[in-house]
């Protein structure tokens, strides 16, 4: 919708800044047939988010790159699964009955298995650090019936990612919070959308199985009525 001069004015940035962000892959404007950059409303939202991260939260450019990469991944995932769900629903369109809910399936990576001392050893952190990250909601360990913290494989992955962001990229805690919030959102969206697609696929498979197991020639028998007892004697099998 917007050429670069209008987009820059909308987000209170210099056009050259928008070109820099594009080179770094932080935004992905479209192009007209004449190769003019055209920015969408989503691009404008992303630019405002970049400004918030850098100016309000003091996140460095490496942290911003991580945030925007995850945001783009989330956008792409949403589009990909919506297209898949639309395709499957198209095959089921016209059928009035509701889709079966089915039972929820838990990803094995989300199964809580490690107590805090083991989890801390696996990621080379102090247990107190893990407690701090939980208070900041950077990780969300499960609890046993006795309220003991239990960390999953996904929690371990998240803790290793936090260490990479802070130690290798120098991202401050505010930036890490934004990145991990998006990671949790991405994981939740992926699980939800995959569940919807799987539910539709199961429903479609069940319907196809029912169609294959219908009694043979039942409709023909019902519509043709009684047959001549001698018709089976016809040489070519026809009445």
In short:
Helix content is 61%, strand content 3%. With 239 residues, the protein is mainly alpha-helical.
Task: Give an account of the 3D structure.
It is built from nine helices and four strands. The protein is mainly α and 239 residues long. The protein has two domains: 1-56, Orthogonal Bundle (Multidrug-efflux Transporter Regulator, Chain: A, Domain 2); 59-92 and 106-211, Multidrug-efflux Transporter Regulator, Chain: A, Domain 2 (Orthogonal Bundle), CATH 1.10.1660.10. Strands 1-2 form a two-stranded antiparallel ribbon. Helix 3 runs antiparallel to helix 4 (61-92) and helix 7 (153-168) runs antiparallel to helix 8. The N and C termini lie far apart (69 Å).
Spatial sequence of strands, sheet with the most strands: 1-2
Unreliable runs = 94-104, 219-223, 229-234
Give the strand content.
under 5%
CATH architecture of the largest domain: Orthogonal Bundle
Can you identify the CATH class of the largest domain? Mainly Alpha
- On the 0-100 scale, what is the average pLDDT? 79
Q: Report, as a whole number of angstroms, the end-to-end distance.
A: 69 Å
The tally of strands reads 4
What is the radius of gyration computed over CA atoms, rounded to a whole number of angstroms? 28 Å
The number of helical elements comes to 9
CATH topology descriptor of the largest domain: Multidrug-efflux Transporter Regulator, Chain: A, Domain 2
Order of helices and strands: HHEEHHHHEEHHH
Structural class: mainly alpha
For the biggest sheet, the summary is: 2 strands, antiparallel
- Tell me the helix content: 55-70%
Organism: Deinococcus metalli
Pfam family, one: MerR_1
Protein name: MerR family transcriptional regulator
Keywords: DNA-binding, Stress response
């Amino acid at each position: 919708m917007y050429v670069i001069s209008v987009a820059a004015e909308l987000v209170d940035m210099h056009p050259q800044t928008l070109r820099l962000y594009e080179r770094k892959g932080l935004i992905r404007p479209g192009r007209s047939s004449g190769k003019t950059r055209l920015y969408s409303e989503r691009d404008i939202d992303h630019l405002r988010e970049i400004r918030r991260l850098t100016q309000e939260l003091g996140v460095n450019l490496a942290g911003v790159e991580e945030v925007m990469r995850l945001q783009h991944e989330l956008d792409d995932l949403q589009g990909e699964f919506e297209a898949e769900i639309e395709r499957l629903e198209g095959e089921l369109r016209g059928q009035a009955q509701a889709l079966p809910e089915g039972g929820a399936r838990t990803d094995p990576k989300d199964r809580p298995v490690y107590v805090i001392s083991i989890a801390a050893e696996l990621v080379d952190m102090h247990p107190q650090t893990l407690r701090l990250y939980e208070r900041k909601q950077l990780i969300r360990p499960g609890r046993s019936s006795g309220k003991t913290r239990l960390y999953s494989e996904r929690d371990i992955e998240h803790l290793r990612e936090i260490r990479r962001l802070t130690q290798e990229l120098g991202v401050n805690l505010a930036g890490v919070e934004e990145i991990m919030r998006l990671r949790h959102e991405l994981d939740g969206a992926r699980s939800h959308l995959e569940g919807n697609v799987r539910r539709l696929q199961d429903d479609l498979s069940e319907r196809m199985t029912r169609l294959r197991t219908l009694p043979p020639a039942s409709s023909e028998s019902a519509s043709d009525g009684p047959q001549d007892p001698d018709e089976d004697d016809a040489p070519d099998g026809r009445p």
